[in-house]
Amino acid sequence: MKVLKKIIGIFMSSAILIMPSVAEAKTKKIEKKHSKSISVKHKSLDKISKHSRHSKHSKKSLKVKKVSYSYGPRVYGDDLEPNRDIYKYAIGLLGTRYTFGGESINGIDCSSFVQHVFELAGYKMPRTAREQALYGYFVRRENIKPGDLLFFATYASYPSHVGIYIGNGKMIHASSRGGKVEITDINQDYYIKRFLFAKRIPANMKELVPQDSIESIEEYISENSKKEDPIAKIIKEKDGKN
Description:
Layout: H1 2-61, E1 69-71, E2 74-76, H2 85-91, E3 103-104, E4 107-108, H3 110-120, H4 129-132, E5 137-139, E6 149-152, E7 161-167, E8 170-175, E9 180-185, H5 189-194, E10 195-200, H6 214-225, H7 230-241
């Protein structure tokens, strides 16, 4: 009996020593598993964060093609595609007699000529050069292209004459000097001195809408009359050498 009690005592002592070790092992196993899970989550979050940073970088490096640019309150159309079809309709009226205030094939003036050309192209353009100057986007003289409208101050300080640029330094217009619709070199001293600005009607414009007001046009003329046109200066120097 004493022997049996001694064996039972030894067994109980061993159990007491073994149980904490087993419990500790299980705890360590759970902690290791939990730690691994947290590590995997951190890796996933790092991957998402890197992807997010890459996405932001991609957006920053995305380039948008410029079609126009602004200077102060104005939008310039140097990079817009002009309506080159205007030239084709203008040539059809070549030789038509000039008449101040005229609006028919028997006699036409500069703004009526432009109005007719745009009507043939499917656009409704106002009657006078001063009103026509409100349409389209400003284009710097060195960037003019065929189809652009050129405005001049002839008998008044505001836009009183208009022509259509056809390339190679020439325009087609109803000329009071020539007495008809003709092609003229815009680098002549007469037109260089009287040139105000150029306007572009974009090729993809469905309907003509005024882009400026008379006040903004007057402001533009006032700003640009204070400085000499660098292109005009080069032309003058070149003509002086020939």
